[in-house]
Task: inverse folding
């Protein structure tokens, strides 16, 4: 640790464990971590084993960036194990589900 190096204005850190939990659907929870004045935001999505989004997840107004932190994520077409990065362009959609349970880091650069 370098005591002479201080966090700059606007620098934000959030513990996932301390982030509020919002239940989106049965077995699917979102923890918001950060939001910019522009609407860009980041968070963690937790999905229990055998849970699924009940309808198409459409990426609007912009893209969705996904990093699979743990477990295996399925987008309705194929499985993606932990360590996978996904870019879903604006206007695209998928049907999120998991048989194993998964934790995803999500970033929405356009809000």
Result:
């Amino acid at each position: 640790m370098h005591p002479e190096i201080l966090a700059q204005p606007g620098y934000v850190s959030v513990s996932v464990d301390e982030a509020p939990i919002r239940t989106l659907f049965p077995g699917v929870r979102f923890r918001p971590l950060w939001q910019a004045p522009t609407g860009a935001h980041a968070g963690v999505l937790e999905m229990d084993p055998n849970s699924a989004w009940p309808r198409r997840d459409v990426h609007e107004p912009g893209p969705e960036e996904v990093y699979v932190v743990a477990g295996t994520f399925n987008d309705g077409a194929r499985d993606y194990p932990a360590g996978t990065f996904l870019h879903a362009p604006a206007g695209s959609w998928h049907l999120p589900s998991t048989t194993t349970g998964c934790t995803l880091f999500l970033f929405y650069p356009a809000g």
About this structure: The longest strand covers residues 64-74. The chain has one domain: 20-108. DSSP finds no helices and eleven strands in the chain. The domain at 20-108 is CATH 2.60.120.10 (Jelly Rolls).
